[in-house]
Structure formats: structure tokens, C-alpha cells
């Protein structure tokens, strides 16, 4: 399924499609320009009032871009299913209700494409956010991480994600990584599944 000119994010979306059920609650931990939020919304939306996408970003412009994309591309009756918060993803537990099982938590790390490249995810907060994600996730759920290793600090952040994944108990978790072989600076994917 990785054949052709697929981007790493499209590969992640294909995996999500096999995990998410209509009516699920999911989290986009890095909304950016909203493409992942929109993909998540399309997978959870089922015409009922169930299901939510909780989206976070630390940049107002990212949340504005996400809202704009949703309003342009998704039917109005579905806009309400997305709850956007201007908040660091390490604090996702502040906004996701404790009693709702979360099926998928998506991270697309790095900086906002077309935005300020110095506002970027950092290994320390990424680690806290992954820990928060592991507490929120339901059994059978997925933490999906796209990491860009080509920019300064990217390789270190990838190592942080790997160290988080490899530190989880094998009784309850399994994790997988996909690395770009054709380009040494290409993105990597890490999928962390809760058994
Ligand atoms: N998912 C996005 C999309 O589909 O367009 C792309 C995300 S972009 C690569 C990374 C985003 O992470 C940026 O918008 C950036 O502002 C955001 N970010 C950086 N640090 C963050 C943090 N601590 N908490 C939440 N978002 C953060």
C-alpha cells in the first residue's frame, strides 16, 4: 500500500481507516493546516451526534486554518463534531472528557507548513503528550505519529518517540515504525497500538 507517490500522512490515513469506527472519539494533537483533522472527521462522522474530534495546536493561525478548511470542505452539520483548543498537546487531558473512550490520537510533528518554522514541536513536550495520550487511549486504540527527521532537532524528536514506544509494557502495547528508505531525510511513521 506504500506504492506510488503517497505522502507519509496519506499512509497514516490509510491505517486510521482500518482502526476508526463511525461515532468514535479521536484526538488530533497537532492541527496545523487541518488536513489530518479533516481526515479524522470524515472517518468518525456518521450523521448522529456521537463522535468527536478534539483538536489542539499552540498557534491561533493553525486553528484558524483548520476551521477554514473544515468550513470549506465538510458539510455544515458536521462542524460541531470538531472541538478545537489553543493548547499544548501535553495538556490534552484537560479537554478530552475522562469518561469517553478515545480510539485514536494523531501527532504530525514539526512546524506549521507555510508558517513560522521556529514554532515547532519539542521532544520534552512531545514526550509528555505521548504519556497523556497513552493514559487516554482505549484498548484497541492507536497513537499515530508522523515525525520529520530532516530539520534540526527532528532526529532527536524521532528518538524520543521511539524511546517512549519501546518503554511501554509489551503485555499491553505493540508498536511499529516505518522509515523512509529512499530519502534519508524523509519522514518516519510510528504506530503504537494498545492491546
Ligand atoms: N496535522 C497538520 C495538518 O494536517 O496540516 C500538520 C501539523 S504541523 C506539521 C505541526 C503543528 O504542531 C504546527 O501547527 C505547530 O503549531 C503544532 N505544535 C507545535 N508544538 C505544539 C504543542 N506543544 N502542542 C500542540 N501543537 C503544537
TrEMBL record:
Per its record, how is this protein called by name?
A: rRNA methylase YtqB
Look up and give the organism this protein is from: Platanthera zijinensis
From the entire protein, which fragment is shown?
78 to 272 of 272
Amino acid at each position: 500500500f506504500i506504492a506510488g507517490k503517497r505522502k507519509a500522512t496519506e499512509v497514516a490515513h490509510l491505517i486510521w481507516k482500518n482502526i476508526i469506527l463511525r461515532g468514535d472519539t479521536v484526538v488530533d494533537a497537532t492541527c496545523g493546516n487541518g488536513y489530518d483533522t479533516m481526515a479524522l472527521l470524515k472517518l468518525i462522522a456518521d450523521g448522529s451526534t456521537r463522535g468527536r474530534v478534539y483538536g489542539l495546536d499552540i498557534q491561533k493561525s493553525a486553528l484558524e486554518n483548520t476551521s477554514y478548511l473544515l468550513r470549506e470542505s465538510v458539510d455544515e452539520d458536521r462542524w460541531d463534531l470538531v472541538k478545537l483548543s489553543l493548547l499544548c498537546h501535553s495538556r490534552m487531558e484537560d479537554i478530552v472528557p475522562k469518561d469517553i473512550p478515545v480510539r485514536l490520537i494523531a501527532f504530525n510533528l514539526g512546524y506549521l507548513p507555510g508558517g513560522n518554522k521556529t514554532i515547532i514541536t519539542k521532544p520534552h513536550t512531545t514526550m509528555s503528550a505521548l504519556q497523556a495520550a497513552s493514559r487516554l487511549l482505549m484498548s484497541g486504540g492507536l497513537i499515530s505519529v508522523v515525525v520529520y527527521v530532516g530539520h534540526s532537532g527532528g532526529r532527536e524528536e524521532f528518538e524520543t518517540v521511539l524511546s517512549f514506544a519501546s518503554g511501554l509494557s509489551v503485555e499491553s502495547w505493540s508498536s511499529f515504525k516505518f522509515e523512509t528508505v529512499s530519502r534519508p531525510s524523509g519522514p518516519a511513521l510510528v504506530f503504537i497500538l494498545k492491546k
